[in-house]
From TrEMBL:
Keywords annotated in UniProt: Cell membrane, Membrane, NAD, Quinone, Translocase, Transmembrane, Transmembrane helix, Transport
Gene3D superfamilies xrefs: NADH:ubiquinone/plastoquinone oxidoreductase, chain 3
Family: Belongs to the complex I subunit 3 family.
Entry EC number(s): 7.1.1.-
Keyword Signal: no
Chief location category: membrane
Residue ranges crossing the lipid bilayer per the database entry: 16-37, 68-88, 100-118
Gene Ontology molecular function terms on file: NADH dehydrogenase (quinone) (non-electrogenic) activity; NADH dehydrogenase (ubiquinone) activity; quinone binding
UniProt superkingdom: Bacteria
Record-given protein name: NADH-quinone oxidoreductase subunit A
Enzymatic reactions: a quinone + NADH + 5 H(+)(in) = a quinol + NAD(+) + 4 H(+)(out)
Length: 126
């Protein structure tokens, strides 16, 4: 028994377009209204750069160690594994043995990358 292909019409995408337009309209409306009704008083003190209530001192272009950025990037890379592990854990029984093997391969590749990072000494601070 063969089933006919489902034809998608442009009207099928209408709810998505309406939601996108509503979200975009809300953003534009919020930006315009806050700009129009917000206070417009400027002074030397109000326009000064502050970070967490502390007056900024020195040049903002001071070089920073690359290890800080490497640690941040590695955190993001290894943190993304949770995004893949959570759906797998929720659907563990449906994936069966094949899903288990695929996750073992994924975790093995992740561990290889982690051991490579440790061997290169990227996480060691001096």
């Amino acid at each position: 028994m063969e089933t006919a292909p489902v034809n998608q019409l442009p009207s099928d995408y209408l709810p998505i377009l309406i939601q996108f337009a509503a979200a975009l309209g809300f953003v534009v409306f919020s930006m315009v209204v806050t700009h129009l009704i917000g206070p417009k008083r400027h002074s030397k003190v109000k326009d000064a750069a502050w970070e967490s209530g502390i007056e900024s001192v020195g040049n903002a272009r001071t070089p920073i160690s690359y290890k800080y950025f490497m640690t941040a990037i590695l955190f993001v890379l290894f943190d993304v594994e949770i995004i893949f592990l959570y759906p797998w854990a929720v659907n563990f029984k449906e994936f069966g043995f094949d899903g288990f093997i695929q996750m073992l391969v994924f975790m093995a590749l992740l561990l290889i990358g982690f051991f490579y990072v440790i061997k290169k000494g990227i996480l060691k601070w001096e």
